Amino acid sequence: MTPMPLTGTGTGTGPTRCADSDFEIRFASTPRGARLASHCLHSWGHPYGSETNSSVSLVVAELAANAVTHGRVPGRDVLLRLVRSDGLVRIEVSDTRGERAPVVRAAGDGEEAGRGLVIVCALAEM
Fold first, then answer.
1. 108 CB contacts (<8 Å, ≥6 apart)?
2. Is the pTM of this model over 0.85?
3. Of all residues in the chain, what percent carry a pLDDT higher than 90?
């Protein structure tokens, strides 16, 4: 299978491609990474709206949002990488704030934030 070009480009990295088993993009503080991940999963045979595509897209969106919200350093991008192997999809999201590891916490009643990593834990094998 020939690598499939995706629409658009990453931030300064040239055209984004979804290869047979690997997808990588650097991006700034936008929801673009989750959309491109969903497109790549679709090209890997997990159609839009399928359980796999929806779950992976949700995990990517949450991890990317955390990276750009809590790990953002002005002028540096977030890295999103998907790798498929043996029927699994590995999701990697990294930011430039290595000293600040994510923390799963229980959000209190009325709090608008603090539930994302609980959702990630429910959907992903770690």
1. 114
2. no
3. 25
